[in-house]
Amino acid sequence: MRKNIAVLPGDGIGPEVIKEAVKVMTAIAEKFSHDFTFNYGDIGAVSIDNHGIPLTASTITLCEEADAILFGAIGDPKYDNDPNAKVRPEQGLLGLRKSLGLFANIRPVTVYESLIHRSPLRADIIKGVDFVVYRELTGGIYFGDKGRDETSAYDHCVYTAEEIDRISIMAFKAAASRNKKVTLVDKANVLETSRLWRERVQEIAKSFPEVTVELMFVDNAAMQIIQNPSNFDVVLTENMFGDILSDAASVIPGSMGLLPSASIGLKTSLFEPIHGSYPQAAGKNIANPLATILSASMLLEQFDLFDEAQLIREIVNLSLTTSYVTPDIDPESTIGTTDIGDYIVKAIQENNNSPIAPLRSDSSL
Ligand code: IPM
Ligand code: MN
């Protein structure tokens, strides 16, 4: 298969984790005789440094012309502490989501048996947890009208029925092929937009009679995700709630450095780790590249390369089972970002098509 992949390393640890994911994809291409071309573009703080703006027309074109986008991370502390900054790295990612119409952000939360003891949550709470967040990504308070004067400011939250329907249908389809439950998270006791979400979701649910619908207020959901995470199968929610809840969910597996995501939309899809640019770790070869490598695995699934994607997941699982991990997972570890990439590449090269290890087994719980 011949594919053209746009690679946007971005800021902080982005370039380091992306390098490992590209190494892994190159090894997959060699093993399975695919032809992947990687074309690089700037975004975020690095784009501000090089071009004065966080997202250039040439990066947008690069992405539009690609078959998929692999994205690192965005953000630089020099902008975070300046509330008056007119140009910010994050505008690059938000602009890209909007211009590519990336309306559905899919964030799976997987618990690895070998890491259960590393989770801050008790083993009996996280046993069997397997859910996925469907976060709306191009509407809501992120993209509504904004403004301010000396003493007041506003951010409008707007949703149309069409915006709600298209991601809701995707979430219901996902639930139908999983454990048949959608939890809509909203704040319908306060927000008009949430009431529209409830109305539309209950309407769409009629076409999926096999799927159970649960309606949950976001404050309660924040608690349930930590206290009772095995309650969830597909969590469907709007942009800002999804941003917050998916970070909360990321503590469950034991490290944020493990969680991949896919953003699907009208044009090219984008794959990125859910962690940010982690500037304190940049250049130290300590960042965990697994979230990006697992994002590359989701990218391969989008190309229908299921064996390739599965092989990556199995090897990642093996690396965790054998405690070949970066310091975010084991603070005593001296294994670096590049070591993990090398390990996975070697395992791909040496694989002889026999199954490596089950992705998950609850036998020891
Ligand atoms: C994310 C990030 C972004 C968001 C930032 C960088 C704009 O936190 O992808 O979750 O808030 O959507
Ligand atoms: Mn976020």
SSE diagram, text form:
Layout: E1 2-10, H1 14-32, E2 35-40, H2 45-51, H3 57-65, E3 68-73, H4 77-80, H5 90-100, E4 104-110, H6 123-126, E5 130-136, E6 146-148, E7 153-155, H7 161-176, E8 181-186, H8 192-205, E9 212-217, H9 218-227, E10 234-237, H10 239-249, E11 260-264, E12 270-273, H11 290-302, H12 306-321, H13 337-350
Parallel strand pairs: 1-2, 1-3, 3-12, 5-10, 8-9, 8-10
Antiparallel strand pairs: 4-5, 4-11, 6-7, 11-12
Helix pairs in contact: 1-11, 1-13, 7-8, 9-10, 11-12, 12-13
The structure holds 3-isopropylmalic acid and manganese (II) ion.
Description:
By secondary structure, the protein is an alpha/beta fold. It has two domains: 1-101 and 266-365, 3-Layer(aba) Sandwich (Isopropylmalate Dehydrogenase), CATH 3.40.718.10; 104-146 and 154-257, 3-Layer(aba) Sandwich (Isopropylmalate Dehydrogenase). The protein is built from 13 helices and twelve strands. The strands form two sheets. The protein has a ten-stranded mixed sheet, sandwiched between helices. Strands 6-7 form a two-stranded antiparallel ribbon. A hairpin with a 5-residue loop joins strand 11 (260-264) and strand 12. Helix 1 packs parallel to helix 13 (337-350) and helix 11 packs antiparallel against helix 12 (306-321). The termini are far apart. Residues 358-365 have low confidence and may be disordered. Bound molecules: 3-isopropylmalic acid and manganese (II) ion.
